[in-house]
Amino acid sequence: MKRVWAYYRVSTKSQVLHHDTTLQQKACLNYINNFGNWKVEREIEELAVSGFSVKLEDRKGINRILLGAKQKEFEVLLVFMLDRIGRKKDEMKFLFDTLISNGIEIWSVTEGMVSKFSERESDYYLQCSTEVEKTSQRVKRRFVQLKEEGNFTGGSPPFGYKITKMEGISELAIHPEEAVVVKKIFYLAAIEELGCSKISQELNRLGIYTRFGKQWIYSTLTRILRNPIYIGYTAYNKCSNLLGKHKRSDWKLQPKKDNLVIIDQEIFNRTQELMDKRRPYEDYSGTTIKSSFLLSELIYCGYCGKKLKAENNRNKSKKGAEKKLSETKIYRRYVCEHAKNKHEIHDQRDFGADKHEKLIISFIADLIKVETFLIDEEGIKQEIEFCISEIKKIKQKLSQLYISYFQLKKDNHLTRLTTLEKQLIELNKKLFNKDITFSILTTKEQSIKLLKIELPNWLTNYNACTELDKRLMLGRIIEKIILTKGSFELITKDYFSTNTQITYQINK
What are the distances in angstroms from CA 179 to CA 162, 175, 215, 292, 464? Predict the structure, then answer.
């Protein structure tokens, strides 16, 4: 009896809502009736996952299939159509070769069995990619044409505007009440010379909230103050899939529309000048390269519990005036955005990155020298064994349900079939969640193996690493770092049986 895994994928949320996976499922389960020696063991689905734009390594369903193939958990992979697996030729060749080399048969309801990635499959995926790209380019070109002509192309209107319909065509128009707030924001920025953080505090103090009744945060205000729509120019080409956010110098503007003007040109220009002076460096885009911050995924605020954000800032002279660009020093820091917007008042809202990184690395190195880190390796192994046992039980239950499913289908018990289909869906979800738990546990097991090598000469090993490996080494020891003014609390990973929570007072 051949064990079968069925895989269903839809690219968009719309397809999810229209139950396209259910149609794929019914087609696949009907197809299985043609084979007396096929036995469905599980179904894997990926919802709203593009086979063209999402990388293979980021697709949990496909990665579970590859793992199952290597562990000999099934013999047949069944899909409705081959393009459900994916649409990129190179990725699909790798996937097909991996599955076939592990003894997996690949079947499609519409195309039959694929014995190898031949010229036929190569042409098929090339055609799929070409058609997707052609459609994408046509849509992009039309959108660019509409934007160049000054047409509204959809989406939420910027704050200060609303959508109206003229002869069936959607257009932007000024929202009178929101426009008053926009003028207040630009007044605080250009005349009072307040930064976005101070503006957010002032608006929140006055009880002036966003369109959705939420408090203002400085990132929202930055987008408003940089948007040329308030002087009548709608901007586009702000970002792309490949390059991310573009510099403002690369933005393109639609023809000016006087009916959209809320702010005077002079006020807008003054705002841009003041904001430019506050940038950490000339080409600063407002984003931070997290790779230069060793603790960016580990560090939390000790007052509100929120994760701290890594941020670059330009320092100021003692008088508060900006230094010349050539004299400017970039100040790396970890910032609590919650406190920055004054949602809460903390004793300290930002922490110097250089100081705290050096301090914590030194602290860990000293701790390893004087303390014995006992690793609960046996506990992890027991958890893995228990998880494997649970997965086995679920698979056995699934196998029984599938036998009942096909019998009920044969006897045409439609009412009981519907109930059984729901049970199958829930059980497959439970199995998928157990797979994720298993993956987490095996990652911990791998971390423990590496730690046994790293810990005896931890600081030497750490200093010899790349920035990426340094972050990985820290991540194998640290679960969380909680910062407050004058102290930090270090919580180690749960597979350490000692020293799990340590508070350290910082000497000033």
Answer: 10, 6, 17, 40, 56
